[in-house]
Each structure stands twice: as C-alpha cells, then as structure tokens.
Design brief:
Length: 568
C-alpha cells in the first residue's frame, strides 16, 4: 500500500508584464512560475525576487508589544531576575537563543529553561514550572517562547508566586482564552493581523527590533542573528511569505557566512559544503537540532547555538549528530512496526485516517513517523506513545483540507487534551480510548471532506524538456527561493524518458537513475525509490531541480517525485 498520485497541471497565467528589464532577464519558465505564485506586476516581482530588509514592518504593529517592551526595560533597569522558558524543538531553541542574545546585549544575565519532553511534556506544564523554580533563583519576570498561549492556569499560578509573565508565541489559543500575562504577543490572538505566519523566533525577532528601536545598543547587529530566525522558520514549516520569506532569504545568507560557531560545526558534521538553502535546513540542520529535544537532551542544542568555543562547538555538534542517529534508528523501528500494523488491520477504502499506538514507541519520535506515514499513504495520521500507566502522548500530521485542531475539538470527549496547528498537532489520550478516537476521527474526515480531497494529487507546475534544464535556467530559478510552506518548490514533468542503464540502488533505499530524452542525458535521484514498483520505460517523470556543487563545479540535479508509464 502506497500513494498513487493523480498528476494535475497547475493553471497557466498569461499576459503578465513584469517590465522590459525583468521580461528580458527572466526566462519564460520563471515568469510563468512567478505568475502562478500570484506575482502579477513589475513592482510585485521586484519585491518577491529582490526582497529588502528595509521593507520590514513596524514591530509595534503587533498587539501588546509596547507592554512587553516596557516591562522588559523595567526588569533591565531594576536588575531583576529574568528567565526565558522555551520549547525543545528548533523554533523553541532558536527563540531562546535569540532572546538571550538581545537581553545580554542590554547587560543582563538571563537564565533559560527548557522542559524535558518525556518527563515534563510541552510548554508551561506544572512539572516544568516546578523544576524551573527549583533550579535557579526565582525570576521576577518569566518570558515564554514558543509556548504559553493556552496556559491560562499555569500563568495564573506564576502570577500568584509573584512572577510576571510575558508570552511570545504563535500557537492557537486554548478554550480558556488569553492568559492573564503582562503581555501576550501572538498575532493569532488578533482579529486582523497580517503577521499570523510568524513562527516564535520571528516573534522574538520583532520584539528585539522593537527593543532596539526604543533603546539602541552600540555594536549589536540584529542582522547577524537572522540565521537563527531562518532555521526556525523553515524547520517549523510556517508559511514562507512576506516577512518570513524576507527573513529566511537573508538568514540563509548569514548561515552561509558561518558567523555562528555552533552552526558552522553542525554544518561540517552534516556534510554541508555548499551554500545552504531551505532544503538543507529541513533535512540536515533542523533534524539534528530537533534530535536533542526528541532524545531528552534539549540543552545540548541551546549550548551549541550559544557557545563561543570552537572546540566545544565541534563536540556538541558531534553529540547532536549522535542524537540524530539514535533518533533515526528509533524512527525506523517505529515506522516498520507501524507499517506492519497497517498491513494487518487497515482497510484503504473505508479507513480515511491512521491512528496507531504502542507502549514500546519513543514519544520523541512519533511526530516524525506520523509525517512519514501521512506522506506515504496520504491519510491524516496520529502516532501515539503509551506509557506504563496507559497514558498516550501522540503527534499528528494532516493532509490539505483536514484541520487537526478542528478534529481534536470534534473528538474531545475521547481525549485528555490536545492542540497545535491545522497541519500538525499533539494530543494526550488514555490507551483504552484509542479505538473510539480512531472511529470519531475517521467519521470527522469522512463527513468533512470529499473523495477527491482525500486522494493524493501531485501538482505539476510546468512541462519541460531536458534541453531546457541548464545552469542558466538555475540562475534565474533560484531567485524564487527560499521554497517551503506556501511557496513550494516547483514540480516539473518531462515525457518519454528512457533509461540508459540499470537503476543503481543507494544506501537508504534510494535509487540513482540514468535518464535520456532524445539526445540529452541527465542523472536523477529517487529518494526511497527502492520501495516503489517502477513501471516499464519509457516514463513520464515528475521532478524538482536544484544546484549541486562538488569541488567547485556546479551541476543541475534532478530529484524524482513520481514516475508513470508514458502514454503511447
């Protein structure tokens, strides 16, 4: 059982005039891709292709920013104890790193705290707060990053202890509404904010910008921390639009400059010998930072990002790489066990969701496995780790058109708690309620989606021929980057492709393919292609392109997304 994509061509938008200069500079294919992304004129195109940091908006446009700035400066001026309380994923770790840097620039020495996933759960949990208070001086100001929006009771408890709270977050509000904090900076609580796409590191960046507008710090350049913002933005899969796209574009440049000693060491461990792009963050850097929190060592990731010692950085990078390898081994074990469960109990015609749980599964890895299974089977998926007391903690990933937040609300009677984003969410459930939740979730998806919505569609941006795939094309095509959520990497198709040699199986069940169209040849990589049953050639292929640099030589690289038999 695997996905059987239906290929669908995106509509072509014609008649767009980008002005004489851009019309001459950009090949027709790139102009077509721009138009498909809603870029419909010269001014829009210039802003999209050549974004400027000067276009960043006023940080005080975010509600309650003035309150947060005033309270932080009060804490700084009075020498009060400040603690940063973060999450253990890339966005949380990056937010802690950036906020710590800006507060230290003002002469403070804030401490930071990150909960351990398996012991204290996510966010401002009772157990996390208790350890935070034990491990250092009680703060007079606690600033949460990447958590806190739904922590009404926990914030009230902190206020009762005499601890003021500022929340910097991007998650949805809980059923109890806004916490009674000094300030809650979260665009998703505003009725009409254009900044709902920000991740938490983006929110922290806006706070830092606001602080610096009010009180400059000689010698502190906020732009030098854009690598942290870019990594968090890409890894958290928030929309790469407007300011997110701008911050990520410049942040990837900073990442390539190697300013952060820890990230430089991590790049070396990850085999990054090229100019980084969003894909490198998604598949090499992000997973290694995330692995620390997944394997219950979140402080390793923060220490890597803040260290100024290159020897220490290399040691921490090696440790994160080891965490990642352990995570991969655990992930593969869970994935194989989950697939075996599906093959024994799954009815593709009537089962519109995947809900699986086990007492042997590591809670730090279930989200990755949920993502893998969702992509493979095109079903909204929850994978749940159950502890010895029968309490399950699960992570979910969804398909377009199915909101996990709405599903959780719909199935609330079967859950202890749950929340998150439409496409990625978490829940807590008793083991004995799994079957009831699975049925309720399945009914919700069946009743709120059409059969067409539930079928996997591969959207093709354009048909191209092999002779068109040149380095000159890449030069213009790369102006569309960074690719990610809402600015997806374009998918192309080519017809009547022949094989010039037998596919070569690579480590990790990937395939290297030797392809030819007419007289033009290209190699291609088909990730996880070894798991697929390939039709007899000639083929139509769907693929993405990127630049590969090896020993100073650039080539155009093809990554296969799907293969089908060519029509006669």
């Amino acid at each position: 059982m695997s996905t059987n994509f239906s290929w669908e061509m995106r509509p072509t938008v014609g008649g767009i005039d980008f002005g004489p200069e851009l019309n001459t500079l950009l090949p027709p294919l790139v102009r077509k891709l721009l138009a498909q992304r809603g870029v419909t004129g010269k001014e829009q195109a210039e802003k999209f292709l050549y974004p400027r940091l000067a276009d960043l908006g006023d940080p005080f446009s975010l509600a309650e920013m003035d309150r947060a700035v005033a309270r932080i400066f009060e804490a700084i001026d009075k020498g009060q104890e400040i603690c940063i309380y973060g999450d253990y994923d890339v966005d949380g770790v990056g937010s802690v790193t950036l906020l710590r840097a800006i507060l230290r620039a003002y002469g403070t020495a804030p401490r930071f705290f990150i909960p351990v996933r398996t012991q204290e759960g996510y966010g401002l949990s009772e157990a996390g707060i208790a350890r935070c208070m034990r491990e250092g001086p009680r703060p007079e100001l606690l600033i949460t990053v990447d958590c806190g929006t739904s922590s009404v009771e926990e914030v009230a408890a902190l206020q009762a202890m005499g601890v003021d709270v500022i929340i910097l977050d991007h998650h949805e509000a809980g059923p109890l509404g806004r916490p009674d904090a000094v300030a809650v900076i979260n665009a998703k609580l505003e009725e009409e904010s254009p900044l709902t796409y920000l991740c938490s590191a983006g929110v922290v960046f806006k706070l830092a910008h606001a602080l610096l507008k009010e009180r400059k710090v000689p010698g502190f350049d906020l732009k030098h921390y854009l690598d942290i913002v870019a990594i968090a933005t890409v890894a958290d899969i928030v929309p790469l639009v407007e300011e997110n796209r701008l911050l990520t574009r410049y942040g990837l440049k900073v990442l390539g400059e190697g300013r952060n000693i820890g990230l430089l060491a991590l790049n070396e461990v990850a085999g990054m010998n090229r100019t980084p792009n969003a894909s490198h963050v998604s598949f090499r850097i992000g997973p290694r930072i995330n692995a620390a929190g997944r394997m219950d060592s979140p402080l390793d990731a923060v220490e890597l990002l803040i260290t100024q010692d290159s020897v220490r950085a290399r040691a921490l990078a090696a440790r994160l790489d080891a965490h990642n390898k352990a995570r991969q081994a655990e992930e593969e074990k869970i994935r194989m066990e989950a697939i075996d469960m599906l093959h024994r109990h799954f009815d593709p015609a009537n089962d519109h969701v995947i809900v699986l749980g086990s007492q042997t599964w590591h809670p730090g890895v279930v989200g990755i496995v949920a993502s893998l299974l969702m992509r493979r089977y095109h079903k909204p998926t929850f994978i749940i780790s159950v502890d010895e007391n029968g309490l399950g903690k699960g992570s979910g990933r969804s398909i377009p058109g199915v909101s996990l937040v709405q599903a959780i609300h719909h199935c609330a009677e079967h859950l202890e708690s749950g929340g998150g984003h439409d496409m990625a969410a978490g829940l807590v459930i008793r083991e004995e309620k799994l079957a009831a939740f699975r049925k309720a979730f399945n009914d919700f998806v069946r009743e709120t989606t059409s059969e067409k919505q539930r079928k996997p569609i591969l959207h093709i941006d354009a048909e191209v021929t092999f002779p068109e795939l040149t380095l000159d094309l890449l030069d213009s095509y790369e102006l569309l980057e960074p690719f990610g959520n809402t600015n997806p990497q374009p998918v192309f198709m080519s017809r009547n492709i022949a094989l010039t040699d037998v596919p070569k199986r690579l480590q990790g069940n990937h395939l290297r393919l030797f392809l030819k169209q007419g007289v033009t040849e290209h190699d291609a990589i088909y990730f996880n292609g070894g798991e697929m049953r390939l039709p007899d050639p000639p083929w139509d292929i769907a693929f993405t392109i990127t630049r590969n640099v090896w020993r100073g030589r650039s080539t155009l690289s093809i990554s296969i997304q799907d293969i089908r038999s060519s029509e006669p």
